[in-house]
Design goal:
Number of strands: 4
CATH topology: 60s Ribosomal Protein L30, Chain: A
Number of domains: 1
CATH architecture: 2-Layer Sandwich
Family: Belongs to the Pal lipoprotein family.
Strand content: 15-25%
Subunit structure: The Tol-Pal system is composed of five core proteins: the inner membrane proteins TolA, TolQ and TolR, the periplasmic protein TolB and the outer membrane protein Pal. They form a network linking the inner and outer membranes and the peptidoglycan layer.
CATH class: Alpha Beta
Helix content: 40-55%
Keywords: Cell cycle, Cell division, Cell outer membrane, Lipoprotein, Membrane, Palmitate, Signal
Structural class: alpha+beta
CATH superfamily: OmpA-like domain
GO biological process, one term: cell division
Number of helices: 6
Strand order of the largest sheet: 1-4-2-3
Largest sheet: 4 strands, mixed
Function: Part of the Tol-Pal system, which plays a role in outer membrane invagination during cell division and is important for maintaining outer membrane integrity.
Mean pLDDT: 87
Low-confidence stretches: 13-26
Length: 161
């Protein structure tokens, strides 16, 4: 019995030491080690932002969405060889047909905004997914708000990395 108590104590001490070792500030910052290569898909996602969000049943761009899209346009001007596709999405409420139309309009509005910022329309395409590709699955606003989005996907021309 006493032997088991010593083993339990040793296991607890070992566990605490393991947790302390993992939380050390001497560990290298993994994000700094994995810095994005300029002009890469990772650079676009991390440093520019690849998506904008919409409120319920809305296809117009918010001020925050416009700011993200201005950054996208500036980045796309730096890399004129890159072609992108704007994916429109909707949350799972509503009919399939309604959500396809809603997500198509969201993608088109993003595309049109990028064109208005000086991006050649031939570099941009759109696709509507409706509610078919949710990123969050639950029956709550916290999930629905993540699914009402337009995502700019790099199709070609990006640097590796």
């Amino acid at each position: 019995m006493r032997h088991i108590a010593k083993l339990k104590f040793a296991a607890i001490v070992f566990g605490m030491l393991a947790v302390a070792a993992c939380s050390s500030s001497d560990r290298p910052d993994l994000q700094q080690q994995e810095a994005a290569v300029p002009g890469s898909e990772r650079d676009f996602v991390l440093n520019v932002g690849d998506r904008v969000f919409f409120t319920t049943d809305v296809t117009t761009l918010s001020d925050e969405a416009r700011e993200t899209l201005r950054r996208q346009a500036a980045w796309l001007k730096l890399y004129p060889q890159i072609k992108v596709q704007v994916e429109g999405h909707a949350d799972e409420r509503g009919t399939r047909e309604y959500n396809l139309a809603l997500s198509a309009q969201r993608a088109t509005n993003v595309r049109n905004f990028l064109v208005s910022q000086g991006i050649d329309a031939s570099r941009l395409s759109t696709i509507a997914y409706g509610k078919e590709r949710p990123v969050a699955l639950c029956d709550a606003e916290s999930c629905w708000s993540q699914n009402r989005r337009a995502v700019t996907i790099i199709m070609s021309g990006a640097a590796s990395g």
